């Protein structure tokens, strides 16, 4: 039997890697057959949840939710008296909301499991009310750029997921012919970079190559998601070094995002392909997105909790826990991102959970040039956003829409994202008025590093249900998802 160690040792020899992956899959079986089957056969109610505050499609209201076969089978006015073997009655301070869908999570397994893995990432997700994550194709070894690599990742994930997990494929030089096969195998779309990704095994596309790949994706309605920063602009900036955050911020100027997003929008316009901008941080690019959308270009965008809740002015020198790319920008930039969420220019929020080891974050020296860029926040995304949103008078129902329904609609999760009849019973019991102070050592992701360490946040997730079952942190029952499945 081929083991993981020998496979990873051959990572720089593509033919050897593919051969070893094939041997691993052959010895372990079809990863889709190995995944736990969904019950999803509604019959008599198995669970009823009663609450005075339930976020349904009609808004917040007192409701009883009946669940059977992992799906929502009944929605009635509180007091109707739905019956089931198990009944949960929420406390007066609790809200039942759809489980969060985090469409941007770097799990890093296989290959960099000292950074993160499916067991820890999905347990952290569940602790934060997240019921579905979509795993990024890079930072794992091998990257998810071929069908064998996807199958290998699915096998590794099997039996390790506390929430449901889907997968993005990768778009890198040389794998254009792999895209349709990956699409048919169930990936939700394809990620590419327009500059160095940070790991050599996932090289970038040029803008012209991006257009070629978009033409391919347009042929089968595939979705391209883009890390949009212009390589030449960043190459021309002063490289980051030392512990001054201002110097790091200057090394990733807004212009890099602005130019790259304009290039993506133009190529989406030419090809008609579906495109999505990842982790938008530059408010200067919003006008480009507004113009493209007004012209009917099929382009969407996400932003992240750290861009909406943190500011450059608050990042201490040496605070490499805050390093991410694109960077956290100034307070006035943050205000414009909130406005763009409100008017629909930015479509949804995703965490960009991008963890690493403590050593790679270089916390001891605080060198922004040496430290790995990424913020681990899948567990904290909901309370972080809610803390800032409630300060601005934004309702929880609106926050839920940004973090559940909208990502579900864009990536094609047809039975998730809303408390609605027939949908998966993916739910979070949320206490919006509770507060807590973040202790990075108590978070569920693998390494105790967090940009939110020591911060007071509002909103505590008390219970998470995945397809009607309470997540218990010991018995993983999450499913591996494929695009287009019911």
TrEMBL record:
Listed pathway(s): Nitrogen metabolism; (S)-allantoin degradation; allantoate from (S)-allantoin: step 1/1
Biological process according to GO: allantoin catabolic process; purine nucleobase catabolic process
Domain spans labelled Amidohydrolase-related: 95-471
Keyword Transferase applies: no
SUPFAM superfamilies: Composite domain of metallo-dependent hydrolases, Metallo-dependent hydrolases
Subunit structure, as described in the record: Homotetramer.
Function per UniProt: Catalyzes the reversible cyclization of carbamoyl aspartate to dihydroorotate.
PANTHER family assigned to the protein according to its UniProt record, in alphabetical order: ALLANTOINASE (PTHR43668:SF2)
Family classification: Belongs to the metallo-dependent hydrolases superfamily. Allantoinase family. Belongs to the metallo-dependent hydrolases superfamily. DHOase family. Class I DHOase subfamily.
Protein name stated in the entry: allantoinase
The organism of origin for this protein: Flexivirga endophytica
């Amino acid at each position: 039997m081929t083991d993981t160690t020998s496979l990873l040792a051959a990572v720089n020899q593509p033919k050897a890697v593919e051969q070893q992956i094939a041997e691993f899959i052959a010895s372990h079986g079809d990863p889709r057959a190995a995944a736990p089957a969904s019950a999803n056969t509604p019959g008599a109610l198995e669970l009823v949840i009663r609450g005075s505050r339930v976020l349904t499609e009609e808004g917040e209201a007192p409701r009883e939710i009946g669940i059977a076969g992992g799906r929502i089978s009944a929605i009635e006015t509180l007091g109707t008296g739905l019956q089931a073997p198990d009944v949960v009655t929420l406390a007066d301070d609790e809200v039942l909301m759809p489980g969060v869908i985090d469409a941007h999570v770097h799990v890093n397994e296989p290959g960099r499991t000292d950074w993160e893995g499916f067991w820890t990432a999905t347990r952290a997700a569940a602790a934060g009310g997240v019921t579905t994550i979509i795993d990024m194709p890079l930072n794992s070894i091998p990257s998810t750029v071929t069908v064998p690599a996807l199958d290998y990742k699915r096998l590794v994930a099997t039996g390790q997921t506390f929430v449901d997990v889907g997968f993005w494929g990768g778009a890198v030089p040389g794998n254009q012919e792999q895209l349709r096969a990956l699409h048919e195998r169930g990936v939700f779309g394809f990620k590419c970079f327009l500059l160095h990704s940070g790991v050599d095994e996932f090289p970038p596309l040029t803008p012209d190559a991006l257009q070629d790949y978009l033409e391919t994706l347009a042929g089968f309605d595939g979705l391209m998601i883009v890390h949009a920063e212009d390589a030449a602009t960043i190459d021309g900036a002063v490289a980051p070094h030392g512990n001054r955050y201002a110097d790091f911020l200057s090394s990733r100027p807004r212009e890099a995002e602005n130019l790259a997003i304009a290039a993506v929008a133009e190529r989406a316009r030419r090809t008609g392909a579906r495109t999505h901008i990842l982790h938008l941080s530059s408010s200067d690019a919003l006008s480009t997105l507004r113009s493209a959308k007004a012209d009917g270009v099929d382009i969407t965008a996400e932003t992240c909790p750290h861009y909406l809740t943190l500011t450059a002015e608050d990042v201490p020198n040496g605070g490499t826990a805050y390093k991410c790319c694109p960077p956290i920008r100034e307070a006035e930039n943050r205000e414009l991102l909130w406005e763009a969420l409100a008017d629909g220019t930015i479509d949804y929020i995703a965490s960009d959970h991008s963890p690493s080891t403590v050593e790679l974050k270089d916390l001891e020296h605080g060198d922004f040039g040496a430290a790995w860029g990424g913020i681990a926040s899948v567990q904290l995304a909901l309370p972080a956003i809610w803390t800032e949103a409630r300060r601005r008078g934004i309702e929880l129902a609106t926050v839920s829409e940004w973090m559940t329904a909208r990502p579900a609609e864009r990536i094609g999760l047809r039975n998730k994202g809303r408390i609605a009849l027939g949908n998966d019973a993916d739910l979070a019991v949320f206490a919006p008025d509770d507060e807590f102070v973040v202790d990075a050592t108590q978070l569920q992701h693998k390494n105790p590093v967090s940009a939110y360490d020591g911060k007071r946040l509002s909103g505590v997730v008390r219970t998470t249900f995945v397809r009607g079952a309470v997540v218990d942190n010991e018995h993983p029952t999450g499913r591996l998802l494929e695009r287009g499945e019911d």
